[in-house]
Write a structure and sequence with these properties.
Blueprint: E1 2-7, H1 11-23, E2 27-32, E3 49-50, H2 61-79, E4 84-85, E5 89-93, H3 96-111, E6 118-120, H4 122-128, E7 136-140, E8 144-146, H5 148-161, E9 165-167, E10 172-178, E11 183-187, E12 191-194, E13 196-199, H6 205-213, E14 220-227, E15 229-231, E16 242-245, E17 257-260, E18 266-269, E19 273-274, H7 288-295, H8 298-306, H9 308-319, H10 321-329, E20 340-341, E21 346-353, E22 364-368, E23 371-376, H11 385-396
Parallel strand pairs: 1-2, 1-13, 2-9, 5-16, 13-23
Antiparallel strand pairs: 3-8, 4-8, 5-7, 6-7, 10-11, 11-12, 14-19, 14-21, 15-18, 15-20, 16-17, 17-18, 22-23
């Protein structure tokens, strides 16, 4: 029996544990989660969208695993009776420049293997989303919505039923000893020997890498908070499905969009604001260590120097409700501040940035002896989690 430790009980750590339990019954899975339950951070604080691979560079690992990933995730949801719906989304171009970008997006989607995409004429758009203003709109029918918390619960139960263990409130502190055959992990509650360790610690992936390898991480995580607002129930009719703007190709952030959630609610967001704490879900959350880490990193300083107006615009939308709503009005001009209620969710995105200030878009996985480190698995990491897990098992284990 091979002992495998997975650091991080988010959706990716659970997906790897789930797939390992099924495909390698000779592996015993142990997951270490520092919170009191799985999926308390990126995995449980997203908008619950199933992304199908429209945006990603053709030929990239992200594009391949996103397209495979949504099909794997839908199959998993059907098999396990998890609440989901393939409702489709529209991507909206508001001016001539965005029409060019939208045409490029449609071409990317075709190259990535998406099916059924089409540009909607005026009547088709009005039938689907009567309140949307668009110069051109692309329908992406394979996108959908899901309850990722249900997904994680099913994965966790399967791991336990296969003889695995999920420790909660048990943070991994580091190594006691390590050689090519065995690693002794030290956590808050115990020390234990493992044949293989897999780092899926999300917002802390770079620090976990350094902690376990005693090397400098090749990438740095910079946390960006994305804030959402709820649409009041009496205005929910303004949004039928998923409505997205054409994203700026320079950034991995998809822009403020409208989401119909699996619980029937409607959300608008997110912005993308530097978080002053790696798990800082409110603009008052602050960690001196995390802030110093970001603001002294030359990669972030280079990014800010090149993108100051973007960064300041996003920061303004965090401070000002009217600035936030102005972004939403681009898609649905009818929306007004009074239609939104407080209490929207916020998530923190683990964004890898190179020393040159480039945002690292693709998934990044490194093997060091008997350690596997998932250093970068941003959106669509949740949708693609089962495909990423299978990719890691096939290529690194």
């Amino acid at each position: 029996m091979k002992e495998v430790a997975i650091i991080g009980g988010g959706i990716l750590g659970l997906a790897i544990g789930y797939e390992l339990s099924i495909s390698h019954p000779n592996f015993k899975v142990t997951i270490f989660e520092k919170e009191d339950g799985p999926g308390k951070h990126q995995s449980g604080n997203n908008s619950g969208v199933l992304h199908c691979g429209l945006y990603y560079q053709p030929g990239s690992l992200k594009a391949k695993l996103a397209v495979d990933g949504i099909r794997e995730m839908i199959s998993f949801c059907e098999k396990n009776h998890i609440n989901h719906e393939v409702c489709g989304k529209i991507v909206v171009a508001s001016d001539d420049r965005e029409i060019g970008l939208l045409n490029n997006l449609a071409d990317r989607g075709e190259k990535n293997g998406l099916k059924g995409m089409k540009f909607l004429n005026h009547d088709e758009l009005k039938q689907r989303e009567p309140n949307v203003s668009a110069k051109k709109a692309l329908l992406v029918p394979e996108e959908g919505i899901v309850d990722y918390k249900q997904v994680m619960d099913v994965m966790a139960n399967n791991i336990i039923n296969c003889g695995g263990t999920i420790y909660t409130n048990n943070k991994v502190l580091g190594l006691t000893s390590s050689n090519e055959n065995s690693i002794i992990l030290k956590s808050e509650k115990n020390e234990q020997a493992f044949d293989l360790v897999i780092n899926c610690s999300g917002l802390f992936s770079d620090r976990t890498y350094s902690n376990l390898t005693l090397k400098k991480s090749p990438i740095k995580i910079v946390p960006f908070r994305g804030e959402y607002m709820h649409i009041a129930d009496e205005y929910k009719h303004l949004v039928n499905h998923l409505i997205y703007p054409v994203p700026d190709p320079k950034y991995p952030f998809l822009g403020v969009h409208f989401t119909r959630m699996i619980n029937g609610g409607r959300e608008v967001g997110p912005n993308a604001v530097l978080a002053l704490k790696r798990e800082g879900y409110k603009n008052t959350d602050f960690s001196l260590t995390d802030t110093f880490d970001s603001l002294t990193y030359k990669g972030f300083l280079n990014f800010f120097a090149k993108n100051a107006s973007f960064a300041m615009g996003e920061f303004l939308s965090s401070l000002s409700k009217s600035a936030f709503v102005a972004k939403a009005k681009k898609l649905i001009p009818e929306v007004e501040e009074y239609m939104f209620v407080k209490g929207g969710t916020a998530g923190v995105r683990a964004q890898a940035i190179s020393p040159q200030g480039e945002l690292i878009m693709d998934f990044n996985i490194i093997k060091e002896n008997n350690q596997i480190h998932v250093l970068n698995a941003p959106s669509p990491g949740a949708t693609a989690s089962i495909s990423i897990a299978k990719h890691i098992i096939q290529n690194y284990i």
